[in-house]
């Protein structure tokens, strides 16, 4: 089933019935909603120890309950670990869809990386994610989501693109190739191990650079196109599946956003910033591995080229906020001023290492995207935050509130984000894809592991950096 099929809505009453416990938001009688220990997919002692340690510092019972439910949700419910030919292999579903997104799978295990040194099984699990991502990239670098079974034919088999068995969806998104590099680089830095970075991984990196080069579209549209028979406009790509035209200026085209919605102007700015960071991380790793010198040079050159193009084309002058980053551009001078909740977003660029929080243009952009000048910024009785076309108007995504908190240096703002997220769970004990600005019980996706684990990461970051905000 596709993501849109799972736009579930729920109410507090239905939650109370399903858990068999009355809800009490003063912090008493909160239901047990975490999967029972004997039914969890994977158990990490380091994660359990972290939960216990953090909960002792959280004054608000409901916030502690949420952390205990959300932080381990990826391990509890979405991972499928095994050894294949003597190597770790980890398939990670996104939650309510049995498919592995390159982006989501990285984000879902990311908060566990600092715990690997004290938990060998956890380290193996994450190594298995890297191995599985390598396999997926080599299968098709243009695909965003994959099945565990390479022979499975999915519901989107009739999409007008080079669809293959084993692919869940083939939406080209720059970040799909950046996130696996982010995971590999952090794993390498924290463990020193090069076990996952064999010839297959290096071949996957070659495909990353090749794909980015193709999507600079200097010699035509390249090999990728996508069309779908659908009533959802954001699932279709105009002009024979290539999207609206761009002027080749050195930026990389992304046919889709990280929301899996089609771009309007194909040069997606936050994704291009992410690509610069990822290409340099790749080059550093390949250098340490004595990898192909030509590939290393090409990765560095491409990063420099994209960075230069961003300086020339990503910044526009806003009458209220001054110089800001556009969300999308086309190289002809057209631009789209907005932000989407899904990461990479303009708001999240410091989180991904694309720039420091102190960058003055980022700070101007931050003010813009967290205001009514962003058409997808919503404020209501249930909270304030960024949404996007994927879930519709007036629907706020917890991802954006989490990113706001993770990129903030202001105690009051961080506390507000924590309180809004706590109130938005609608008694379920988990984060959701989105919720209505005036009614948190009107939400989409009951089981969305990316949001759950990222919320856990936010609480853990607050615990490590600003513990007083939890007490």
TrEMBL record:
Keyword Hydrolase in annotation: yes
Classification via Gene3D superfamilies: 1.50.10.10
Gene Ontology biological process terms from the UniProt entry: carbohydrate metabolic process
This protein's record includes keyword Hydrolase: yes
Keywords noted in UniProt: Hydrolase
UniProt xrefs under InterPro entries: 6-hairpin_glycosidase_sf, 6hp_glycosidase-like_sf, GH125
Pfam family, one: Glyco_hydro_125
UniProt cross-references to SMART domains, sorted A to Z: DUF1237
GO MF annotation, one: hydrolase activity
The name this protein goes by in its record: Glycoside hydrolase family 125 protein
Organism of this sequence: Fibrisoma montanum
